[in-house]
Structures are given as structure tokens and as C-alpha cells.
Amino acid sequence: MKIALIAHDRKKDNLIQFAIAYRDILKEHDLYATGTTGTMIEAETALPITKFRSGPLGGDQQIGAMIANNDMDMVFFFRDPLTAQPHEPDVMALVRLCDLYHIPLATNMGTAEILLKGLQEGFVDWRILEERRK
Ligand SMILES: O=C(CO)COP(=O)(O)O
């Protein structure tokens, strides 16, 4: 599965801790990230990550394009609800595309844990089943 990892600055530590804790599951998948998030997670976990531009410079939109192209399966986007983002429209667009294309999206640690454990247990195979139906 293709998984996107994104975190706003004050949530990056959260996502790094999450990636460390669940490294064994994440390493079985193809990982993508916005620039700074990806660089930091790679440094802490040594997981290979395809990195896009930094979020404020278009990285969210690059991941959104993958979703629109049916080329992304799951998104972990730890958003900071207390800090205004200069690229808020891009953030909302990414969340919107997840909803539009039924892409599982976790915006905080609580949901992320359930989503990743669900992935490990095979609870999110619908995209694979959908592919088989084509
Ligand atoms: O701003 C972001 C998501 O909206 C994240 O971008 P960076 O990973 O480059 O900090």
C-alpha cells in the first residue's frame, strides 16, 4: 500500500514517535511524505521515504495529485489545530480529496493508531478488492 506521512511543525514529534513505534508495519509499505516531515522521519527511522516539496511550497498538493490519480491508499496527516497555516487552502484541499476518493485519513495519533493496526489486520483491503474487480 502507498501511505502518505505529513505533519505540521508542532505535530512532527508526534508523527516521528508514531513512525518509530510502528516501524515494523510501515516498513512493509511504500511511504511518501511532504519534504520536512519526510526528511525528519527518515533520519529517525531509516525508513525509505519518497519526499515531495515542503507543505507550504506545494507538497500537500503533490500528495493530493496522487490521490486524484488513484495512486495513494492511506494518509496520516497530523494537523496542528492551534496554529494558522499560510497554506490552509492546500491543507483543506488534501482533506477534501481524501473524502472524495474514500481514502482513509488520520489527522491525529488516536485515529492513526487504529488505522495502522487495522491495516496490519487486513481491515483496509477494499482498495485491493476494488482493483481486482476492474
Ligand atoms: O505543511 C505541511 C502540511 O500541510 C507539512 O510540510 P513539511 O513536511 O514540509 O513541514
TrEMBL record:
Enzyme class: lyase
Residues engaged in binding substrate: H8, K12, T34, G35, T36, T37, S54, G55, H87
Pfam families (alphabetical): MGS
Superkingdom of origin: Bacteria
GO BP annotation list: methylglyoxal biosynthetic process
GO cellular component term of the entry, any: cytosol
InterPro entries per UniProt: Methylgl_synth (IPR004363), Methylglyoxal_synth_AS (IPR018148), MGS-like_dom (IPR011607), MGS-like_dom_sf (IPR036914)
Positions of the catalytic residues: D60
Function comment: Catalyzes the formation of methylglyoxal from dihydroxyacetone phosphate.
The UniProt record lists the keyword DNA repair: no
Protein name as annotated: Methylglyoxal synthase
GO molecular function ontology, one term from the record: methylglyoxal synthase activity
EC number: 4.2.3.3
Cited SUPFAM superfamilies: Methylglyoxal synthase-like
